[in-house]
Amino acid sequence: MIRVLRCGMLVSYSSSSEDDEENEDRDKRKHKGFKNDDCAPACKKLRCVTTTRDGRPQTAELHRALAKPRLPLPGSVLEMFRETEDPSVEDSSLHGGRVRSFQHERGNWATYVYLPYDPDEVFLELVGAMMQVVSAHGLSLNWAEEFHVSLSQTVVLRHHWIQPFVLSLRTGLASYPRMVCLAEKMKVYTNDAKTRTFLGVEITTGHAQLLEVVRAVDQTMEEFSLDTFYKNPSFHMSLAWSVGNCVDQLSSKCLQELQATLDSHEDGSFLLRLACEELRCKSGNKVFTFPLRSPLPPDPSE
Predict the structure, then answer these.
(1) d(CA 135, CA 139)
(2) What is the Cα–Cα distance from 152 to 165, expressed in whole angstroms?
(3) Biggest alpha carbon distance in the chain?
């Protein structure tokens, strides 16, 4: 038997003595009625043998099968296991330079309760006039993405907490009636970390009613061991914001001019009126609505 190693493969050829034995064996088979193709010995054919890493033989057919290119995975499957950026690295340029108050983690949902406000044309004109006042003092503020009055701190919910959390809120807020709030005092606020400054208008009428609502919201927060609202809250609606601590720049002459703009808007005293017909809870990209109860009609006997 002669073996020649070619291209990493061991090729075997039968010797002359083996040929004689094979011919004799073939004649015997032919005499017994076998066809030539049936009696062809396997060793007569060219055999290609490779070995695996552990030394075991590997046939050429298996070698070729393993060498075939694999079918590409569908894009949807690749997307499921796509490597994401390190969640501990925040790119503040993607959201106006803002810095998260808590670290984002997969499965954590930022959640807060609020009173929504649907702005009309007169209100938007007022905010535009205020931005001109701010700009005249060399400052630049960003308009609020949405206008609302916060009734809770922003807390973190795990995904499986969302439904029971919302159910608890719905139960606790079911008995609260609709109300009307008025806002008429300009104020400047910062977040707890002093990384953002807000220009807002404080609610002066309806404060007591909002405190009652906050007590119901706090009960749900305590049920889930979450932070409750501030002890002495200043209910307000943010109009614009800026990165960093800009309290000093906004709290002097600029704030006085902003208050004068609010007081004289539309050629007279202007009151920002908020009709509180429903409350909302936003958790991640989900928004849940809690309609407030319609006030009872007056008793005709009174």
Answers:
(1) 5
(2) 13
(3) 127
Which is higher by pLDDT, 39 or 166? Answer: 166
Q: What is the pTM of this model?
A: 0.66
Q: Considering Cα of 189, then 274, then 213, then 218, what sign does the dihedral take?
A: negative
Annotation says 236 is catalytic: yes
What are the structural domains, with CATH classification, of the chain? Answer: 2-67 (no CATH), 108-291 (3.90.1140.10)
Among the options 31, 207, 236, 265, which is catalytic?
236
159 in active site? no
| N-to-C CA span, the chain | 120
Is 124 a residue whose pLDDT tops 50?
Answer: yes
pLDDT at position 254 is: 96
Q: Of 146, 156, 250, whose CA–CA distance to 196 is shortest?
A: 250
Q: Does the pLDDT at position 29 exceed 70?
A: no
CA distances (Å), origin 166, targets 170, 214, 247? 6, 15, 35
pLDDT score, position 94 = 44
Please choose, from the candidates 97, 258, 138, the residue with its C-alpha nearest in 3D space to the C-alpha of residue 188. 258
Torsions phi, psi for 46 (to 5 deg): -70, 125
Least confident of 85-99, 143-157, 188-202, 267-281: 85-99
Residues 283/236, Cβ–Cβ less than 8 Å: no
CB 11 within 8 A of CB 50: no
Does the pLDDT at position 211 exceed 90?
Answer: yes
**Burial category of 112 from C-beta neighbours within 10 Å (exposed 0-12, middle 13-18, buried 19 and up):** middle
Q: Report the sign of the C-alpha dihedral through residues 125, 127, 129, 132, in that order.
A: negative
Average model confidence (pLDDT) across the chain: 78
Which of 137, 148, 159, 265 is catalytic? The answer is 148
Q: 118 pLDDT exceeds 90? A: yes
